[in-house]
Design a protein that fits this description.
8 helices; mainly alpha
């Protein structure tokens, strides 16, 4: 196949991964998979007491394993699986940059965006963490974020105009409801 076809498959996979990640985040991680994801909604002090990794990181290991298998199958002649696996890997890298680095600041440097797309992405995910339970959350995407005004309205509707708990104020410190 041509390089353009391969690039298109890779790009479509990245877009498709955002849709898949939204679905998995809302219905798996905040559903039957809450046992792993709960660690991600705990306060920073609780997470730090358990070390740098959290149980939620197991999701990244599972998805990376799937991408590795797809790349291997593709290189063994099962076209276009290698490009789908490469798209999953590229999405995982973007997730790592935006989610783990920018939003949760699991890197050695701190940056809080002040305007534009990165600010909206940052605030949307911080609003997701305004709720520390599996129900009542907003904004399940990782690279695409609804308008902040929409998320504020959704949070108010779900929680009667107030944040659900005292610990949520830490998570939503950068977003005024």
């Amino acid at each position: 196949m041509s390089i353009f076809t391969n690039a298109l498959i890779l790009l479509l996979t990245i877009v498709g991964m955002e849709a898949f990640a939204w679905f998995a985040h809302k219905y798996v991680m905040h559903g039957w998979g809450w046992g792993w994801h709960r660690s991600h909604h705990e306060s920073r002090s609780v997470r730090q007491a358990h070390g740098w990794f959290e149980k939620n990181d197991l999701y990244a290991v599972v998805f990376a394993g799937v991408a590795i298998v797809l790349i291997a199958l593709g290189t063994w002649g099962r076209y276009p699986l290698q490009w789908i696996g490469a798209g999953m890997t590229a999405y995982g890298f973007l997730y790592f940059l935006a989610h783990d680095g920018l939003v949760h600041q699991r890197w050695p440097f701190r940056y809080v965006p002040r305007h534009g797309y990165l600010k909206r992405l940052y605030q949307a995910h911080r609003m997701h963490h305004a709720v520390n339970s599996k129900g009542g959350c907003v904004s399940f995407g990782f690279l695409i974020a609804p308008p902040i005004s929409t998320l504020k309205r959704q949070l108010r509707e779900k929680h009667g105009g107030a944040l659900p708990s005292a610990t949520s104020r830490d998570a939503a410190r950068d977003v005024r409801l």
